[in-house]
Amino acid sequence: MKNFILLLCLVSVSSCQYEDYDDSKIIDPPLATCIDGYAKIDGTDHEYSCLNYDLMGHVTLEEMDAEAGNDCWGWSDSTTGREYAIMGVNNGTAFVDITDSTSPVYLGKLPTSTVDSSWRDIKVYNDHVYIVSEAPDHGLQVFNLTNLRGVESKQIFSADYTDKSFGQAHNIAINEDSGYAYVLGARSKGLYAFDLSNPISPELVTELPSFGYSHDAQIVIYNGPDQDYVGKEIYFGSNEDRVDIVDVTNKLEPKLISTFNYDHQYTHQAWLTDDHKYALLGDELDELDSNYELKVDAKTRTVVIDLSDLDNPTLHHNYEAETKAIDHNGYIKGTEFFLASYTAGLRVLDVLNINQKSISETGFFNTYHADDHSGIVKKTSSTKWLDPGDHIGKKGNSEAFNGAWSVYPYFKSENIIVSDINSGLFIVKKQN
Hints:
The chain is mainly beta. The protein is built from one helix and 32 strands.
């Protein structure tokens, strides 16, 4: 009988080992609760301006053995139910287990393949992370994320594969529906397309220099209102002074559909609404004056593009927030737009009524402080980082290019990660 009970216990433990993560099991309170516009860490002087979002956890740059942060992405392990933050830093790519968001665990780092760089970009496909960097001769690093299972202490990881068919690159975009990765801003020839059928060993399919330098892009199997292109793989490239819309269904014969032009300064990133009817575009320099400082009357601008007719994209409207900051990386989830807005931190915009040219801010969490950035990592003379990318030869050198770089809002737990250039990784969550 005792053996039978023991067997039942073992079966029970085994069956529960890989059950889906349930955020309701967390009993620890947030690291800092947003009350009356501020979230203050108990027992410290560290506080953050906020609205409707609490700080669940935080991993500093010091903990990640780094000096500056950049991009971030997320991975949810479908086998174990655990959630991981992946954050780019100056000297590599850091991995953090955020399953218990109030007690994040830094697991270690995949070092840069060559030298340090302030610019690194990360995407995930089929349990693998793909990493590019502006570091010379960096190439494409591939790391099997299942290697993180069972890791409990800080480690130095090795890439499972590195592709050196190009040198430095600014960005990488992946269409998970087609299984293709697009390396963007490669200095030698512009755009590279990789087949990820074998995720550990991407196959270079084509180079697309004819479409120029792409700073960022989103590629989708189009399912929007323009019936001429439904079912085709469409590339929306933010190409410094315009948005190029390209049919890349046939990787060997891409076809330019159209170009969206507007009163640009630097076309940085566009992201589509779920119905593919609109794209929300951030221009990285339009809030700055000729000295690359924030304009006195600066308001964060989001350019909304009407994509009802891909052959003729038009300006739907400009949304101007009350924040005085530069917008950077932003992503749509349902009817919300999650925007990393440098010195204004994470901003959350309701786009439900975008048809009626109505966008409203419903919450925010500002990871940046002018005096000491997060309040945890003190500002020094060395914590000033240049604005990413080529920018047609322009480099930002003002305080405006500090703060929140990117955001990832797609975890099942509804935790949101924010990568801050000066202060590391933040885990925030909407209040109930």
